[in-house]
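Records of this kind hold a single protein each, on a pair of labelled lines. Below, a sample record shows both lines together.
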Amino acid sequence: MNVLPCPVFLFSMDSDQFWAAPTTTGGLKAYYQTYGKRQSQHQLELVHFRDSEAVNAWQQQWQETVLPRMQAALSQGLRPVVGFSMYTWNAAEFLSLIHQIKIACPEVLCIAGGPHVQQAEDYLYDDPIDLIILGEGETTFQEILDAPASADWANISGLAYLRDDELHKTAERQRRTYLDDLPSALDVIDLVDAQGNCLYDSISYETSRGCPFKCAFCEWGTGAIGTKMYQFSMDRVRSDWRRIVDAGIKDIWLADSNFGALKEDLEKAQLICELKAETGLPNSFATSWSKKHSPRVQDIVLLLHRNGLLPHYQLALQTLTPLALELSNRKNMGANKYEPIAKQMASEGVPIAAELIWGLPGDNLPEFERNLDQLLRTFPNLNIFAYTLLPGTEFYERRDEYKIETIPVAGYGKAKGEYVVACHTFDRDQGIEGYFLITAHILFAHGHLLPLSIRYLALQDNITTAPLLRNLLRAVCAAYQSEFKDIDLNDRMVVYENRARLYTVILQDPERLYALLREHIFAYLETDNCPQHIPAIRNIIDLDQALSPRTGGPSQTDYHFNFDALSSKSALDCLNLPAPEDFLPQAQHFTVKSPGGVGTILKDPDGGGWLRGEIVTPTVELQTVRIMHPNVKPQFSEEVSLQT
């Protein structure tokens, strides 16, 4: 009787709105096909899901297609294998799938790896996982497949498993220092179909491994990846990137932890610009940037920006609160250093942003609000995240010491992490109010509903934006509660978790939305003894409304203003207040081109800045436009008309 190879299924799933080639599981397959000792006895298959809906569809049919193959292997004395690459965004779906597979086929060997399961005891006791890979997985996975019996597991480094209900962890797997020994995942992944059409929009690619920092909220430098940074050779990177662009993949997203920290990173940036010039691809090149803004980092950022490859450049400040920085094992550059960097890059049109986290131990809401105002005055964009407690991090280990209280994310608990809502430096009400505040920022600033208005007010010496942002969100929740009969918008955490849905609903009728926002902004300024700002902010809100994301398809709309909207916008884009003369009565009109897409392409506020309206301005002599601010020069295209 012919013995068929034992099936080995490797599962991966993309995060939301990121359809990329399965490089993680592809790397495991490529490694085994290169170094495995029993290759003829195993048939490795990649099962890559685009999203949770694809997982659900697979669950509906796998017992008809996959289960018979597993049972056939068992009948031949072989043990089929399922392996899961687990991250925060797919853990809930994969744990559900693991339970389903093990119920139908208890004998299957279930292996899990990835950052989310490095706290192995949290999963082995509760979920039907047989083995968890700790640390780098390629060699460990190969040795598991080559081990003839479970008795050999004790001799394989980097494993965790239960035996007689007792947790066993084998010797630590030493990290690989020469990465070129790892075969390319591209050797085993089809990037195009039979007709030559590209199969994926994007690809996640690592040119280096490791992170030199040990941030207490992050698993990157303290867990599976480690602190020492190693990198692939330029020959390897050059070969892979050529294959990627030749396949037609539009976006390359690096999985590096600190791009720009290594001297070779400038050469990598030069390479990607050369490929762009030669082939037109990629469209964008994104990464996690070095935590230190060095001259090399600045050179890389400007190079990518000039070549149209830079979707964003983020300074990962995370917090400005001294105690939170100390407990997080971080030290940011001083404000006197990052403020001129931010202003210079903003004036050059570089999409620079700062990252801020709410909920870190050591922080509190009043200090967070001060930090928010400071960064709103300094950066054209802020990305604010709620702190999610993740397994394998220092804060996770010290949760009792810091009196950390959490709420399960979307009801999933450990599968998707835990929202931190209280700790030893802020109570639960303050913690949840912080979630409400960052929801307001995500909608009104990040979602591009009121970005210029919020910046204008933040630049004033006598205004604090946080109470205003919360007031606006409470007004929106009260006014739109009737459209959300299934959820209670008085529950602040419900609002946070349903922010994407709220965003798309309120944008269905812009006139209604902006009438509400105007009413409450004016009332706030009156109450806060700042009525002198109302005439100017009335104009800025009009400009925000003209540029906000739209429903429907692409459109062009003419707008008429009674102030110098172009000069005002140019100033605010460069983090300066408009001049008083900008608000003197004067007729100005221009066309705004909008890509549309709210509710179809744009389903959450994270994309608001990408699908905002753009001003179509005329060709005019530069001297006809009043330039009130040094280094602020409006850029003009060749359409429509302007009256000043």
Q: What stands out?
A: Residues 31 and 139 are 8 Å apart (CA to CA).
